[in-house]
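hi support,

uploading two proteins for the ticket. first:
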Amino acid sequence: MPQHVNVIVPEDSQEGTETAVSAWMKEVGDRVEKDEPLLELSTDKVNIEVAAPQSGRLEEILAKAGESVEPGQVLGRISLEAEAEAGDGAAAKPRKPQGHWGLQDSTPEAGFSAGQAEEARQRLSKEERLSPAVRRLVKEHGLDVSRIPGSGRGGRVTFADAQSYLQGASARSAAEQPGRVAGDGDEPVVVSRSDEGVGHRFVPHTTMRRKIASHMVQSMLETAPHVTAVFEADLTRVAEHMAANRDDFLKRGAKLTYTAYFVDAAVQALQAVPEINSRWHDDGLEIFADCNIGIAAAVKGGLVVPVIRQAQSRSLFGMAQKLQDLTERARKGKLTEEEMRYGTFTITNHGVSGSLIATPIINQPQSAILGVGKIEKRPVVKETQHGDALFIRPMAYVTLTIDHRALDGFQANSFLSIFSQALQQW
């Protein structure tokens, strides 16, 4: 009886997060190497590559693409008897890359220029690392894999990358090609005309989008009664401080942004009104000692919320440095699930995309979420020793949405008052 090893869902999957198999990169019978990416899992936060625990041959797939899975669940099995085969001389022979471009020898002597030869080698190398699911998409739709940005390990093109590229291409040609169907056989992107003759297209939801939708409905309609308070913050002193220190921060390796100030001010407000930094339980309110602040970041296909842990122990520079690292890796899809766990409070800076005011939905199981609107210069009336005077100041609306089971309006107002004062008196 051949020995085998199980491929399982990582036990440290995020609490309350549904996980599904996105795509297998290998087929039953394929040879796999230890630590080689074997399949992709997707949640509402991140895509996770599961590596082969041992070298061998993929013996069985127990969870197919699209199926929901739980931490510790067996996804497939690898037969270890293939180890002996790997040492066989015949099996150890190197094989030439075979690409669908039909290039066996990309050399100048074979009729290619040096530049063309290098481009061909790169294409073949990139195609060699494609999973069967991605390879099928590339073949069915004649995609140029060298044009698809890869977010997988070592720049490898994942199934999600190929789908996103395909959907983008479909969107660009929607008006010109009514009736076209793009996408793989399971998740088509349809561009057609309705019975009324109005052009439209159908883009299937990604796993991330479905999970975000479920989480938002559960938070807003099934769990917490939402109430939102609105204040206005004067950012004159913050803007002056940022202008005076931006270059110094850059020299030291951190990009200074308004968000770093928002996190710092939120820490001060959370420490003054600790009930905001909490989680509701039926028998009591769990109030956290650490300010683990999540920062909502827009990425391709949805939102992710990386967490700055123990934000109360960081300087402004340390905050800016951590924010830069998390945001850059979020946009590249390089965040780990561990970096999005244990958040106790969330900030969404929706103003970066032009929004003046918003009422964000609470990121369960937290008790509140802070929204920061667009910073814009507005006329403000201030009292002076000579009476009221009109000034032009950089202003922003700030909102706090609370779980009314756990918190009341006076606590929300106290938080926002301290938060806005911290910014105004920087």
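and the second one:
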Amino acid sequence: MLLILIIGGLSSGSSVSSASKIYFFYIYLFTAFLPMLWIVYNEHTEVSSSIVGVMALYIGLLSLIARKISQNVTENIMLSFDKEALITQLEAKVVEANSATEVKSKFLSMMSHEIRTPLNAIIGFIKILQQNEEDSKKLKYLSTIDQSSAVLLNVLNDVLDIGKIEAGKFKIDKVTFNPQEEFNSLLVLFQQSCLDKGIILINSVSHSLPLSIEADKLRIKQIISNLLSNALKFTSKDQTIELQIIFKPETSTLYIAVIDEGIGIEVDKIDKILEEFTQADDSTARKYGGTGLGLSISNKLLHLMNSELKVESEITKGSTFSFEIKVCCGKTLDKVDPNSEIKFDGQKILVAEDNKTNQMLIEIILEEMNLEVSIANDGLEVVEMYKNSSYDVILMDINMPNKNGIEALHSIREYEHNKKLFTPI
């Protein structure tokens, strides 16, 4: 009996330790129990018969337990492999998604450049034609083309900004500027559009703003411009749009809000309008137009500046878009006479530009400024022309055939270093 109990205990332990390979367990079990069963069975007593029955039942129970343990161990191992495979798949998907985002960003950047190059030429030549045109009907047509081109350029810039932000290549560039002058000049750009729609534009830019602040002037003005454009789109005749800007010295922050009396936004759709390519609903897009990028870009830019866009709105009562941004009070800026005029006197300028239309436009503009212009068609040509002559300044395109603008810049700097020369590029 003692021997049976010892063998039974060892077999119980083996059901756990060897169950991962079930046939090992069976080899051990039957090797341990069969000789003992045979001996007890041949005793031919009442007790021996009972013991054989109990042993047989015990072997059966151990087999069931071992098979269950074996099944659990197998499932756990397979689950572990499945998890590893899933992690590998997820990592591959992340790499694939990042690659797709990078490809998309490159594509958007390339397409924006390819479209913007001829569009800049269109806008430039329109400005030239407007200067010399006296026919009121033709001026009206030119103005329409000019406005449409500006809208298209804004859309391109928005798409390009979204691509840069998603690719993590967007940087905040802080400069020192006079906020009063910059924000008031921004309002001037919207005055005519408001007059055309019969909208009252209210200037609530505080007179107690610092003389100068340090922040990303371009992006702050871009955000305000997007908010004013959005308000202008959804506000009707005899309603108001207000630009409110206040400086809070205790926290060194600018509070900026654009308040309109427009159509308003339903509460459950406020979060939706901050998504890319999204407006409150399809009917809004059809009626008022737009890509739905302006507010999304504004909010993404604010996130880069550790802020966010807040929206308060009520249907038919209007909306308030506001944000606060941390700024540094800069040094006092020297006043520049706005009536002063920069005059040139035949300085020589070398322009590296591969697009023929842009070459023509740039040449017209610079010659009107009394500059002597030379044109290079690519990076190789600009380097050779520079070595064979002297110029007061070089305007360098970046995307050019044969040698791009960056490579041409390095070649010129290397040549100048040996000659102890320096030309602004």
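thanks. also noticed: The chain has a mean pLDDT of 84.
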